[in-house]
Structure formats: C-alpha cells, structure tokens
Amino acid sequence: MSTPRFLDEIGSKLSELAANSPARDIEKNVKAMLGSAFSRLDLVTREEFDVQREVLAHARQKLTELEARVAELEARLGEGGAKGV
Predict the structure, then answer these.
(1) Nearest 10 degrees: CA dihedral of 49, 51, 53, 59?
(2) Res 34: pLDDT
(3) pTM for this structure?
(4) pLDDT value at position 83?
(5) Which candidate, 16, 15, 18, places its Cα nearest to that of 27?
(6) Closest to 55 (Cα-Cα) out of 42, 44, 70
(7) Residue 16, class by beta-carbon neighbours within 10 Å (0-12 exposed, 13-18 middle, 19+ buried)?
(8) What is the dihedral sign for C-alpha 7, 13, 14, 19?
C-alpha cells in the first residue's frame, strides 16, 4: 500500500519542480516584456478598427453622393448659363 503513496509524493514533487522551474520564470518574463512592448505600440482593438471602418465606408458613400450632386448642379448651371448668353 505504500506504492500509491510513494507515487503521489513523486507526483507532487514533480509538480513542485515544474512550478519552480526556470522555464516558468522565463515564460513569465517574456509575457511581461511582450505586454510592455505592445502597450507602447499604437495599436487598436479589433472592435475599434471595425467601428472606424464603418465610419470610413459611410463617409465614402456620402462623398460619392455629394460629388454626384455637385456634378448635377454644375450641369444645371451650365445649361442656364448657355441660355442666358
């Protein structure tokens, strides 16, 4: 019956070693460095990007509509100016 207890002790020792291993410290340090580097970059979230893309699409649509309206008004102005000459 001491065999299962022995295996439990080995398992707990291995878990303890894994938790205190240098690899774990390196992983924590790398994550901290990457987090710091990303925070210094001028990045946006996907949500912010999608919102800005929609705003830009709306602005482009409005610009196209306004360009068509200006062209129509210029055409009318050209017709009226030709008649008055």
Answers:
(1) -150
(2) 82
(3) 0.48
(4) 57
(5) 18
(6) 44
(7) exposed
(8) positive
